[in-house]
Amino acid sequence: MASAVPYDPYDDIDNNPFSEPAQTAEIGPETHPAENQGQIEQAKTSNPENENKDEPQQPISELLPERHSQAKKFQLMVKVTGLERVGTYTYKKDNPTVQFDVSTNLPTFRKQQHRNVKKTMTEFQNLFSFLNGATPETFVPALPLPSTNYGISNSEDYNKTLKNFQEWFDRISADPLLLRSAELAFFIESDFNTYTPVGKLKNTPVTGLKRKTLKQLTPPYDECLELAEFRPLVKSIHHLSKDIQVKLLKLCKIRKTLSQDENAVGQGFKELAQDSSHAKSHGKFYLKFGKTLTAVGDIDSVMATLDAATLYDGLEWIGEETYTVKEALTNRHFLMRELLQAQQNSKFRQEQARKLRAKRDVSPLKVDDAIRALKTATTAEHELTLKLRRITMNMLLQKQEWLEWFNTFLINCIKEYTMRKIEYERKKLSLLERIRSDVRAVDESGGLSRLGRGTRTGRDASAVIKPSQTSQGDSWTSDPRSHAFEPSVLKTEFDASIDTEPEDVSVAEDRYALDAKSAAHLLGTSTF
Predict the structure, then answer these.
(1) What is 59-196's CATH topology?
(2) A cellular component term (GO) from this record (predicted)?
């Protein structure tokens, strides 16, 4: 008679399907076997979910010992100190050298302090590829861009790249699973430009055509609802960021074209000023107006570069990050498929064992082979089950951390994009206001006769028009507070192109920095 209990090598030896039925002592009143069998079958069929519910849930300290409270004593502190770009232009742009200092108490390192460590971008990519394949339990942070759209010969590119690599090291140091990797110690302690992954990947993730084919299939049923909903969310963020990048790049190209057209119009007005048929005052006005338009075109060109360097680069990093997270969740789906196959294989081996036990004359070799195959299948199923539980538990913790990083990073990108946009729009307005008095001086009525102000004949040459961009803020916003004021707005880097004297600007600013009306307003209103 076949055994009704599946064989488990980790259970008691009496669970072996090839063992003889044990002779149990009769305890208590006699009962009919048919009644006992009916009660057992009724108990099993009444609630088929008892097996899953009765399984004890392993705590986090057992599944993830790296995250245990006693394991948090290990630290890795990295400070990025410099960035070097040598070689050809392409090599400078794509393969910079990052210089940093390391202080740690991890036992995988040979010493605690490492100074002036230099690593190329190629070495960082080798480390990322190994960590991404060796630690499927966590979301390995994507590498920052080797250069920004500021341009590699720019101080802003230098500072932004250093900041990005510092943030990447901070995220690596905050992950206890990545800290325990010995490959991180090999990476830091290896010589300059010599690092290659030392360890070997135990279970290489599916790649190539097989991966593309499996991704087309319906994902297996996921009991963890949070991770089942998380992957579509990450995928949508990835596609949305790519779409915004395409539109933003198109906008930057249009703004570049606009700046070229503005420069051409400004050059045309400069040539028009040399025409002797116009009045002398008109010639001076055309010359100054042409220089102003050229400066405004330069500002639009700078704004196009800033749009690409702030928001576009940020979305590029988000795209790389979401792709890494999405592929890590896809690897979890592949592991779930392997577990289903292992469970089917284990059931098949159990059925074979039952059939062999039902036979009278069985070869001992066949029995040994069946037991060996059953143990192998059950062991593989057990290992895959523990691995899937470990990955699921850590990804649930990583999900919250990743969402917090994503929100903070995206808000900072939008804030930087907005602040730089406002700064250069105010610079553009400040340049245009420099020629406001010249425009009005061309008309005897002050250029306002068509607005119903024709009674104001003539114009006082000594009158000075109050600029809108002052230390009190932007007068267009009717906001008297000065906490958001940028002094660089009054003196721009384009003043030399329109022959504007800095002294005049400072005098005008001092004159209108605090007049009687503003003083009375400040004295009568609280400033906190």
Answers:
(1) PX Domain (3.30.1520)
(2) endosome
List of residues 6+ apart from 104 with CB closer than 8 A? 74, 75, 76, 77, 112
Just give the CATH number of 205-444: 1.20.1270
**pTM summary value:** 0.74
Q: What is the Cα Rg of the chain in Å?
A: 36
How many angstroms separate the Cα of 415 from the Cα of each of 148, 337, 412, 418? 17, 43, 5, 5
- 120 forms beta bridges with 97
Task: Output the CA–CA distances (angstroms, integers) from residue 493 to 300, 404, 428, 431, 490, in the order listed.
Answer: 13, 38, 11, 11, 10
Q: Would you list the domain boundaries of the chain?
A: 59-196, 205-444
Q: Give CA–CA dist 199/186, Å, rounded.
A: 9
How far apart, in whole angstroms, are the C-alpha atoms of residue 366 and residue 352? 10
How many other CB atoms are there within 10 angstroms of residue 367's CB atom? Answer: 14
Which residues, listed in sequence order, are joined to residue 84 by a DSSP beta bridge?
A: 97
Closest by CA to 387, choosing from 330, 335, 327, 333, is: 335
Tokens of 502: 């800095």
**Token pair recorded at residue 353:** 């064992």
